Amino acid sequence: MSNQSEQDPTLLEEKFSFLKPGGDYHPPDCTAQQRTAIIIPYRDRWIHLHILLYNLIPFLVRQQASFTIFVIELAMPTTFNRALLLNVGVLESLKRDNYTCFIFHDVDLVPLDDHNLYRCGSGPRHLAVGIDKFKYRLPYGGYFGGASALSRDQVFRINGNSNLYFGWGGEDDDSFYRVNSAKMKVSRYPVQIARYRMIRHERDKGNAANPMRAGLLETAARRMAEDGLSTVTHLYTTENVWVKPLYTWVTVTVNKTHVMQ
């Protein structure tokens, strides 16, 4: 059972003092087959982040995962861009270790079943199959949002995610189209296992619905080779990297006008 009560960060640091700096963990009694980067795109969700960590860290430890938690923050005033931040998370994490598996994880989703293994498989895996907001059902067949697991090879095969989705909506569908275009198949655990509770919140300021998402989705497959990991390096500036007890926090700035040119 998940706990969605507000959590004191200082108490969490004491509770999870076994973590190495930067939110890093290696299971003491086995050698993990995968080295996993947990990538959390972030803006102004302090309470939600620590509720997630209260639940996610012991969840990963019980699964004997070898992991590091990365929080990737987009500085104001730029409109939020979840997919671009996921790309940043991949590149910034690989500067620090040889990660072989990437978990892309929204800050407001708490996994409910330990059998929902946070591992990468032979193809991309959609983790957040059943969310309470959707009555624990997949909202539509191509839904790829919330949380997903891709190996390093899979991420680079689809050139990561699109950098063009500013605002809410569409970027996860774009990623699903990329996976299909690369002739890979998305796998999912049964909905009885891949269940999540959403931490309630109001719509974020600076994250209005993206009016361009329909047009962008029409060109998703055609843009894949030239819009993603291969181009994001020139689109952001790293302002700060903080190695904290619970996570590695990376703050970046992005010029939206430059990205959309």
TrEMBL record:
GO molecular function terms attached to this record: glycosyltransferase activity
Alphabetical keyword list: Glycoprotein, Glycosyltransferase, Membrane, Signal-anchor, Transferase, Transmembrane, Transmembrane helix
Compartments (UniProt record): Membrane
Domain Galactosyltransferase N-terminal: 9-120
Pathway entry: Protein modification; protein glycosylation
Annotated membrane topology: Single-pass type II membrane protein
Major localization class: membrane
GO CC list: membrane
Galactosyltransferase C-terminal domain span: 125-202
The keyword Transmembrane helix is assigned to this record: yes
Similarity field: Belongs to the glycosyltransferase 7 family.
Full protein name: Beta-1,4-N-acetylgalactosaminyltransferase bre-4
Species, as recorded: Batillaria attramentaria
